[in-house]
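Appendix C reproduces, verbatim, an entry submitted by the partner laboratory led by Prof. M.T., so that reviewers can inspect both the input and the predicted structure.
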Amino acid sequence: MKKIFKFVDNNLNELISELQTLIRQPSVSAKNEGIEECAKLVSKILKKSGINSEILRIKKGVAPVVFAEVKSKMNPNKTILFYNHYDVQPVEPFELWDDDPFSGKIMGNKIFGRGSSDDKGELITRIKAVEAFLKTQSDVPCNVKFLIEGEEETGSANIDKYLKKYKKKFSCDGVIWEFGYVDSKNRPIVGLGMKGLLYVELIKEESKIDAHSSLAVIIKNPAWRLIEAVSSLRDSSGRILIKDWYKEVKPFSKKDIELLMAEPIDENSFKKEFGIKDFVGKKRGLELKKALAGSPTCNIAGMVSGYVGTGAKTVLPSKALIKIDFRLVPKMNPKKQIERLKKHLKRKGFGDIKIKVYHGEAAARTDPNEPFVANVKSSADEIFGTSILNVSNAGTGPMHSFVKYLKAPCISIGSTYIFSKIHSPNEFTRIDLLKKTTKCICQILEKFGK
């Protein structure tokens, strides 16, 4: 592997340059901004790296999937698939960015810009790892495929359709997921699962027009109505109060608990980074780890009503809405959970509140005894010095769909520093972690091929 690693070292500037090119191409799926252009750019970069690429579609108006493949001459019977996405989160609020969100600016060991970590930085490590084998050996240790979608940041609404239509094309023996965290002590977190998600909007419209706030004694305020409704959903400890919400949730296995106990978490660094004094319910130690890996959540993602500009305006709003995301764990069915939410609101006297469902996806986990896990873990240990097995990431992705259609284990490993401000202003990636992760992916391919 010395020759491979030397290639990665010698071509680090090219990796950085191509990542900057990707960052400078906006691709905000929530606004359908630059999606087509970015898909074509990704395909171009893949081809430049010697990887055959094509753009797949299912229907007009749906973001295309970039598919790429390299067939192995030495080992054509094993296939690894890299799942990534080229879309990014919106950049607002603009005023909190120190520089242009799509600048790709380099400052010391960091590259700044939306998508620098999530997920363009991760994607480039996969591409450059495969290129390293092609340029030094004219072959790869196993078949390699890429599935790069453009709707991950809006819930991967069409990934099931792509997986179903192109199931044979995407077939594989193992999936490397689109990201992976590196903790505050530079240890990569090898993630074995993803939580599910149910994203809804609660809407209450009381009157036809906004009114003078003096009329609040006779006209109901829809914002108060929503606040009262949302207050019934959970308690101050974070426990969700909807009947049967936890009915299908299974306790952690003995092996899961062992992994959780062995997983270090720097609570003080976490609090310092976010400027908080305590965690929800004053959780600590094992309870904190269990919550991150396996507790459902009920989170208010946004609230809109009345006047929110500078200064005062005494107004009684006609309409209010609250966006809520529920994180789900294995065995929780998004469709069943939405019905429970509807029944809860009706039972509590809030049947007048409208519910708009944006999307839902189930959770998934890979068995820690799966051989592929040992492959990834040992590769990470060799490159980073040590790594940590994680029962499940706290975030969400369409992992359940991949398990359902491809019947392959999925594992997260990557270069995203835990405090790299993904989804926030001034998102960045670390150059040293990009280099190490590229080598780690090379090592995974080598071990997987054997």
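The mean pLDDT is 96. Additional entries are available on request from the coordinating office.
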